[in-house]
């Protein structure tokens, strides 16, 4: 075999290895999803969705968990959305370039890299103890809001950056003030992309477990929360709780709850991808 | 009008300021509680003692076993994710059709959107029993399956960031390599990967930082036994798992046990903070600039 034939052979071999690597993750994912669905589907019925938690696996349900997750989702959106978009608008439209802007940028990049469990410690000390909110929905939502704030800020900035200069100039030329320009032109024009980023950030928040465990969200809550100051549990914590029990029946429950959690995550991601595609088709500057 | 504009700008500025307050808050919370901890436990003991038993009667406060557990799972995760992630990046850039790249990339991203507690379930109920068929000594909780599954989770992180780095290498370099008669493989490893090395290193550092801070996979599947070992077959405990373990239990606020989670937290924070800033520094300093 000549040298060049050998090289070509190596090239082919790497190509096959490349295909293998590209699909191994997806194959593992598929195996996993099938395993979960086979295991969980037999437990997943209306009773499971509407029952309160119980010490008996066959009677336990996820009502408190999914109600808690929805509460957290809504509260986190209400807190993180205005804050994150406002901060993004400030940094992109108002902030002057220079040391201060640089510092803010590095700081946000750093916050995005802080492990979620550290946000839990922050929330425990500030919201649960200093602000005396206890292990409430509000404390959990505030903690998760801080966690996803960097993601929302970064996507807001990128969305705003994509709005061309001419739109702003046109608005100023008609006599609009800076805020009128931002509110009437820049934000509506970039709203689709901002929304995509926010939904992706929320899908991350829905799956978060560790920070909520740290602030003291309970594994066993015998009632559905009715106000933001009530104690709560969420789907991931319920899954964690059932997974850490030795009995087989609880693992089946966990698998069924995972199906619900994954449906919710995939739904949020699906909406985000749909919005992004629609946005890309619609907007041509 | 003027006044409203100013007020609005002030409110926007406050929102941006919150990000700084969060950083200050994190550092303040971790420091203030840890200082309380280090008043009772010497920092020398914390760093050199070889056992971590704050919840037992015979208390010992050596962080090393938790650090070892964290490093072990991280090492396994990177050993899985780096070769696979980098190969995917090269394959998608140099071999695959543009259409395939378009389809595969979002599919890989799905791996990153799955909640980590779900990966933990997977490691415990699927991967560990599967591996036990080949490795007889494998315990029910172990660093190996947790590490492998964590590796699968961070594949898209390495593949996507490395792919960005490789595809930003200018065409002229690639074409010069092909012009010299190189195969795709030789072009990849002789030209593209070295040219994109800073971006690839950044992706690996960020992946390490992510693995160090990962909580639920290890909390579910790696065990809760702090142990100073590099044996991947036995139960261990990571820094993050310890924080979860204490948070689940009934530890009175203000007690020494309670303060240990902040001491563990600050250790974790120092690791990830250093890694993240190292990656920013490399990105800034070594980013290849082509015209």
TrEMBL record, chain A:
Membrane-crossing segments per the record: 13-34, 65-91, 103-124, 136-156, 182-202, 209-229, 249-275
GO CC annotation, single: plasma membrane
Protein name: Phosphate transport system permease protein PstA
Family label: Belongs to the binding-protein-dependent transport system permease family. CysTW subfamily.
Gene Ontology biological-process annotations: phosphate ion transmembrane transport
PANTHER family in UniProt: PHOSPHATE TRANSPORT SYSTEM PERMEASE PROTEIN PSTA, PHOSPHATE TRANSPORT SYSTEM PERMEASE PROTEIN PSTA-RELATED
One protein family per Pfam: BPD_transp_1
Record-level Gene Ontology MF annotations: phosphate transmembrane transporter activity
Keyword list, A-Z: Cell membrane, Membrane, Transmembrane, Transmembrane helix, Transport
Membrane topology: Multi-pass membrane protein
The keyword Isomerase is assigned to this record: no
Domain (ABC transmembrane type-1): residue spans on this chain: 66-272
Protein localization: Cell membrane
Automatic annotation (TrEMBL), chain B:
Places the protein is found: Cell membrane
ABC transmembrane type-1 domain boundaries: 67-279
UniProt cross-references to NCBIfam families, sorted A to Z: phosphate_pstC (TIGR02138)
Alphabetic keyword roster: Cell membrane, Membrane, Phosphate transport, Transmembrane, Transmembrane helix, Transport
Any one of the GO BP annotations: phosphate ion transport
TM stretches of this protein: 12-31, 63-89, 110-131, 143-166, 187-208, 261-282
UniProt-recorded name of the protein: Phosphate transport system permease protein
Membrane topology: Multi-pass membrane protein
